[in-house]
Amino acid sequence: PAAISFGIISTESSITLKQLWEPFIEAMSKRTGVPVKAYFASDYAGIIEAMRFGKVDVAWTGNKGAMGMVDRSGGEIFAQAISAGGESGYYSLLIVNKDSSLKTLDDVLSHAKDLTFSNGDPNSTSGNLVPGYYIFAKRDLDPRKIFKRTLNGSHEANAMAVANGKADVATFNSEAMGRLTITQPAKAQELRVVWKSPLIPGDPLVWRKNLDQATKDKIKSFVLSYGKGANAEAEMKVLNSLQWSGFIPSSDRQLDSVRVLEYFRQKSKI
Asked: pTM of the prediction?
């Protein structure tokens, strides 16, 4: 292709994401020999649809977003992010303000009728699917019915809502928390975690199946070697700002455990 379009999900504002991803995108252009352009959408669905219509060639997304790409947009997982701590995953969180009287998940659920809850993007794994399964579906609860008011926002928007007193409780994740401690440490200090999920598989990178093999080989070689070559020190700083330490090869089978959660949630609704 004349250029590669790299889709980036809207976990934070596009300005913040551009600052975090720009060095990676520039290095990808240089090493593959093909211009790479970042593509930002206002929500996860925008990236999924952009791949379906050929506007995005490669994308960073969560596991639930990757399900949409694989099932509806001709996408295929080829790599998985490894956390900055070396784990092959990250955690969904439920957060409240540090001054809140809510100390546990039971506190949140028992006072839900008096609380404003900010949920994640409907296509977010850690912001919606995982808490939707472990917190609500397994207890046969519907957050839209038990809370006084329910909102939806990105990870950053949820954190800001809780820190600024606009929401009583919200979904978040450990990677976004790590980024927030770097970009807005004062706001991060206003948050307290009241629930933490089991480990979620690390974020996948997805490409269009119908990309030519030569381009796929260049992209995969770059991604898997990033943070390991002659510029390892500088590249590791970029990865660490994204709360990662590198990438490993992966496939669509990465989604198996996440699909089980989604199927359970759909079954519960039925």
From this structure: 0.86
